[in-house]
């Protein structure tokens, strides 16, 4: 018996080695292809190999994600410009807790009837939606193209625009959001946000093929970070036309408590930092009423974050809407803030930060808005 070592890949990129035995009598070498095709010479092996052939990857100096996303995200300077990306920023595609934030991602919190333990393949193809669609009224949040369904999208736009018709809850005692703002005012009321629940770790469907696993797959459309010509610093745009409801990215950064964020804000304010990058994970404040400091969490993208950190604000008619998503377990102190297209876009991607420009007490002193929208709320002289 002869032993052959077979490369599963091109000659220049041997990634996996496989040893096979073959009879000596024919005098032929047998090359076993990884997708079970056999070829009798090395040449035809490599010509039938591309199914598994993975191009040798290089570190693309223009990819701000440094390979962390499944698509590269290039950055583009203004013509003739020499702006550089911030040096104290490291790209991460997963949220990381800084120090005190308590994140309760526990298997025991996922009850059997809160996940699909008998599903196979793609849950969206099932005749009847599985348990995972319960959160969204018995229908999956996504369509077969991986986009958020129209009704849910409309609802999210209404909620984020503070539509009076949306359900509101007022804190009975101290409002954690007012406390976070350093204010002693009464609760202004919280809109009850509708969450999306994706299939999670205990579900038995396919981790990549299930259509109820969209946000957890990460960025898949072509995005670009570019230097805005209107004085907003860096911004994000798409280089392809995105359909309504397409998931663009989630807001990823360091997970902080309010106190930690306050300390950072103060420091940055003293340093006269130009840009600020925090968001509050407050979509479920209304069901808790009373929250300890280490449970009302925020994401800060200043030092660690993903492409969402470069998305600028637009008042009123922004083309992205944020939707809270449960991915790991039902603990809503930490959830995923996903951005989907609410208006067709092939231009700068913007998101309404929901800032009150007149609020002098706001912990992040609002910038002078240059969004250019007819609905711009920054009316300060
Ligand atoms: C999340 S960052 C966005 C990325 C930022 N432009 C950069 O270069 O890193 C938020 C900051 O961008 C700037 N910004 C965002 N939207 C803006 C707008 N509509 N007008 C002016 N500045 C804006 C503000 O300085 C704000 O604090």
UniProtKB/TrEMBL annotation:
<dbReference type="InterPro" id="IPR007728">
    <property type="entry name" value="Pre-SET_dom"/>
</dbReference>
<protein>
    <recommendedName>
        <fullName>SET domain-containing protein</fullName>
    </recommendedName>
</protein>
<dbReference type="GO" id="GO:0005634">
    <property type="term" value="C:nucleus"/>
</dbReference>
<feature type="domain" description="SET">
    <location>
        <begin position="221"/>
        <end position="354"/>
    </location>
</feature>
<dbReference type="InterPro" id="IPR001214">
    <property type="entry name" value="SET_dom"/>
</dbReference>
<dbReference type="GO" id="GO:0008270">
    <property type="term" value="F:zinc ion binding"/>
</dbReference>
<dbReference type="GO" id="GO:0042054">
    <property type="term" value="F:histone methyltransferase activity"/>
</dbReference>
<dbReference type="Pfam" id="PF00856">
    <property type="entry name" value="SET"/>
</dbReference>
<dbReference type="Pfam" id="PF05033">
    <property type="entry name" value="Pre-SET"/>
</dbReference>
<dbReference type="GO" id="GO:0005694">
    <property type="term" value="C:chromosome"/>
</dbReference>
<keyword id="KW-0158">Chromosome</keyword>
<dbReference type="InterPro" id="IPR046341">
    <property type="entry name" value="SET_dom_sf"/>
</dbReference>
């Amino acid at each position: 018996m002869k032993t052959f070592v077979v490369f599963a890949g091109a000659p220049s990129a041997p990634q996996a080695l496989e040893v096979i035995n073959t009879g000596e009598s024919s005098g032929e070498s047998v090359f076993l292809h990884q997708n079970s095709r056999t070829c009798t010479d090395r040449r035809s092996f490599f010509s039938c190999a591309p199914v598994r052939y993975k191009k040798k990857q290089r570190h693309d100096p223009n990819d701000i994600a440094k390979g962390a996303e499944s698509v590269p995200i290039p950055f583009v300077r203004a013509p003739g410009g020499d702006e550089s990306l911030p040096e104290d920023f490291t790209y991460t595609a997963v949220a990381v807790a800084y120090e005190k934030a308590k994140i309760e991602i526990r298997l025991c919190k996922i009850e059997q009837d809160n996940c699909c333990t008998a599903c196979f393949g793609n849950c969206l193809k099932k005749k009847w939606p599985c348990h995972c669609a319960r959160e969204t009224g018995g229908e999956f949040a996504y369509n077969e193209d991986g986009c958020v369904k129209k009704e849910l999208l409309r609802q999210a736009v209404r909620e984020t625009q503070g539509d009076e018709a949306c359900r509101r809850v007022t804190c009975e005692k101290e409002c954690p959001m007012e406390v976070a703002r350093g204010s002693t005012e009464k609760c202004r009321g919280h809109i009850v946000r509708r969450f999306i629940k994706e299939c999670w770790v205990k579900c038995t469907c396919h981790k990549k093929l299930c259509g109820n696993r969209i946000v957890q797959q990460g960025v898949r459309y072509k995005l670009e970070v570019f230097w805005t010509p209107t004085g907003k610093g860096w911004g994000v745009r798409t280089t392809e036309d995105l359909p309504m409801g397409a998931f663009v990215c989630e807001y990823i950064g360091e997970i902080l408590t309010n106190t930690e964020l306050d300390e950072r804000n103060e420091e940055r304010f003293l340093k006269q930092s130009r840009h600020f990058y925090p968001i509050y994970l407050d979509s479920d404040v209304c069901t808790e009423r009373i929250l300890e400091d280490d449970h009302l969490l925020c994401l800060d993208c200043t030092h660690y974050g993903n492409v969402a950190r470069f998305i600028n604000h637009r008042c009123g008619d922004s083309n992205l809407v944020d939707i809270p998503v449960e991915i790991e377990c039902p603990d809503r102190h930490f959830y995923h803030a996903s951005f989907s297209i609410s208006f067709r876009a092939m231009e700068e991607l913007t998101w309404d930060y929901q800032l009150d420009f007149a609020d002098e007490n706001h912990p992040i002193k609002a910038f002078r808005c240059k969004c250019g929208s007819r609905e711009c709320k920054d009316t300060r002289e």
